[in-house]
Amino acid sequence: MMKNIYLILVLFLLLGCAVITPTDIESTYVGIYRSVDVVLPEKYLWVNVKTTELTIYFGSQNEKSLPSSAVKISGDTAIAGLDPNYSFQSGTISGSVTFSDRELYITYLANTSTTDIIVLKDVKCVKQE
Question: Where are the beta strands (DSSP E) in the chain?
Fold first, then answer.
């Protein structure tokens, strides 16, 4: 009887633990996205998506160049997930991105020495042409 209980517990543990490994972002999502609304005083959230990299920054409505304050998230363990949901973490920032057609929804937490703590939840961004 005890062996059966242990076997059941081991099976639950093995089946319940799913490992999400680092993965590339689907190529259909590659592009530059901008938040629909202003997220900081007069600043939009911009997300530059590549298959192995996310670059996040704040800028004006028509920002085309990357500012020096842009945060680049890349590397073997920085981005992980299963399409269409990905999570990221790099030093003092972390968050998640969910893709939907030509949109993404991002939750973002930053705590850097140059800024206050920034928390953005489910910000809708639209792919720019």
Answer: 31-35, 44-50, 53-59, 71-74, 79-82, 85-90, 93-100, 103-110, 118-127
